[in-house]
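Subject: Sanity check before I submit

Could someone independently write out the structure tokens for this chain? I want to compare against mine line by line before I put it in a report. The sequence has 158 residues.
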Amino acid sequence: MRHSARGRLHSALRYLLLAATAWSAAGAHGQQIELTLDVIEHPMVSARQVRLKIDGLAAGQATVRIGALRVAQRKFTDVRVHCRDYRWQGGRIECRRGELSAAGQKAPLPVRFSYALPTQALEVVLQPQAGERWTIGASRRGGEVRADVVLENADLTR
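---
Independent answer below. Compare away.
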């Protein structure tokens, strides 16, 4: 029997959260955690060679590297999200000062995001240029997922 990608992802995240909780309870503050996933697959998104590195459970820096990323029909390689101000507390994961880069991109994009574990609410804010802002939000209520995208002064010709 083959498990769904969503089921595998949820299982992997559950194990990560369990390990993080145990690690935190054991006084592992300041320790580094690394998680590697070969494939995350969904009809709208796929990611291959995913590596997450966290310098400390509660706060510090975090980096996600993705070898190949597909979002809808767009493909990206060597994707990197680096958070200089990462926090995980009260069931909320935040990156307040981050950078997003990919192969072929001229300069990293400023990014910030937050994810509330209990409500599964995600908010991502990208700022490709001064005065330009892309806000992406997603949340789950019951079995239904809702997504919102707000573009302010967006240049869609890039």
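---
OP: Matches mine. For the report I'm noting this point. Confidence is low (pLDDT under 50) at residues 1-5.
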